[in-house]
Amino acid sequence: TNDISPHRQQNTYMATTDTNKSKVVKEIERIAANRVQRRVRHEERRQKLSEVDHSIPAWEFHAMITEYRQQLEIKPLTINDPQKDLKICVCIRKRPITKKELNKKDIDVLTIPNKDHVIVHLPKVKVDLTKYIDNQKFRFDYTFRESCNNDIVYHFTAKPLVQLLFLGYSPMVFAYGQTGAGKTFTMGGDLSQRDVDFSKGIYALTANDIFIHLNKPPNKGQYNVYCTFFEIYCTKVFDLFNEKKRLRVLEDHKNLVQVVGKKEEHVETVDQVMALIRRGMSVRTSGTTSANEHSSRSHAIFQMTLKKKTANKEYGKISLIDLAGSERGRDTQTTDKITLMEGAQINKSLLTLKECIRSLGRNAEHIPFRGSTLTKVLRDSFIGEKSKVCMIAMISPGSSDVEHTLNTLRYADRVKELNVDELMQR
Ligand code: ADP
Ligand code: MG
Question: Which residues does the annotation say bind ATP (predicted)?
């Protein structure tokens, strides 16, 4: 019985490759279909948002949210939860509602029920005029509720990146969000106090950890540490360590981008770093009427660089970035030329940033860093194997801010999306 003829064998063989191939094709189709579905969901959410009913009285709306919350099981993130090892980490931080907001009859419309979800409660009215809340859920790598302090935020965001500095990495941490949502509070510490305590911000906590690692073997005596602090307003760069001196961004023939002439401060203790941060932050806000007015339109970049004493060239570098207010890029009410131009620049830089992070997550050959000064200046940290990004998107809890909050969540969601694709490709 001569069953298996060469011809037949070949057929069998063909059939197997065929199924293999179709597996891949199916997988690609599935990813594509998921993407389409996501777009549809996004569009639905957008549509729904435009139906938000602002006429529902605050107390009624508040009662509905309270009732909804009562049936939730609240299990917040704690310091004992495991840290995830992610190339791109996207998390959300909700700040507490303020007395001022409550006095204005604003209500808290956000709930963070557990370590990775956030729920936005939107007031709606049905065709038959019944009022209800539409609860929109989002998921991220971590979500920090209003009771979380800077220590816990630091523990899950910048802390895991600090040890990588000593392995030659160039990680970046971004604070994103609407003005007043808590970016500077998270990065620098509480500026609202007269005697500002910088020791509680991510800048200081990072510096502290760097020196702890630096003084442990095998690192002891091996490195020098330098700080730089500058700000980007529109396409211009200003040195916060040098009275806002204008700095030039140059690109050499090897595509290496350099901020020329920026002041690099050699530091040996946490106290020195703190003094520098204090100086830089006061330079940043000087000459303007209020702290937020100016800082909401510029990105501030604080960097700590490790150089090997033997080579005196950059080994590892961590960049901590307090971004311009995300609402600025969307301000369409104004007709003021300067404000329009600022808004366009901010919009462009935040969109480019998102695309760069997405490309990084996809391990793309090409990173579109040329699209903005912000990403140009950070180019080196986006290139190569040793890049890591953490984005902390800050959100304000008030119902009057809910549209900005949804915009922030959508932006963060778009950055995060690639983590899903990444998993599928494995
Ligand atoms: P941004 O830098 O995003 O414009 P800020 O960091 O200046 O916002 O925060 C706005 C206000 O809210 C400040 O008065 C700040 O002290 C307060 N705030 C922000 N986040 C928190 C928080 N997690 N807990 C308590 N107060 C906060
Ligand atoms: Mg700020």
Answer: 177-184
pTM of the model: 0.85
Q: Which long-range contacts (CB under 8 A, 24 or more apart) does 186-194 make?
A: 186/93, 186/150, 186/153, 186/392, 186/394, 187/302, 187/320, 187/322, 188/277, 188/281, 188/322, 189/150, 191/281, 191/291
408-417 burial, b for 16+ CB within 10 Å, e for fewer?
Answer: bbbbbbbbbb
Of 324, 368, 320, 322, nearest to 342 (Cα)? Answer: 324
pLDDT at 1: 44
Distance CA 338, CA 64 (A): 43
Spatial distance between the Cα atoms of 371 and 352, rounded to a whole number of angstroms: 6
> How far apart (Å, rounded) are the C-alpha atoms in residues 341 and 328?
10
Classify strands 131-139 and 117-125 as parallel, antiparallel or unpaired. antiparallel
Banded model confidence at residue 211, pLDDT cuts 50, 70, 90? very high
Distance CA 405, CA 398 (A): 9
Q: What is the pLDDT of residues 159-205, one digit of tens each?
A: 999 999 999 999 999 999 999 999 999 998 765 555 666 668 999 99
Q: Measuring CA to CA, which residue among 100, 97, 188, 181 is closest to residue 147?
A: 97
The alpha helices in 139-266, defined as continuous H runs, are 150-156, 159-165, 183-187, 202-214
Question: Which residue among 92, 95, 193 has the greatest number of ligand 1 atoms within 8 angstroms of its CB, and so is best to mutate?
Answer: 95
Q: Report the run of H or E that residue 236 belongs to, with start and end.
A: strand 236-239
Lowest mean pLDDT among 119-133, 189-203, 329-343: 189-203
d(CA 300, CA 388): 19
Q: How many angstroms is it from 296 CA to the middle of ligand 2?
A: 6
pLDDT in tens, 260-283: 999 999 999 999 998 999 899 888
- Ligand 1 shell residues, CB under 6 Å: 95-96, 177, 179-185, 190-192, 292, 394
Paired tokens of 381? 């940290």
Q: Output the six-digit token pair for 426.
A: 């494995």
Residue pair 412/92 in contact (Cβ under 8 Å)? The answer is yes
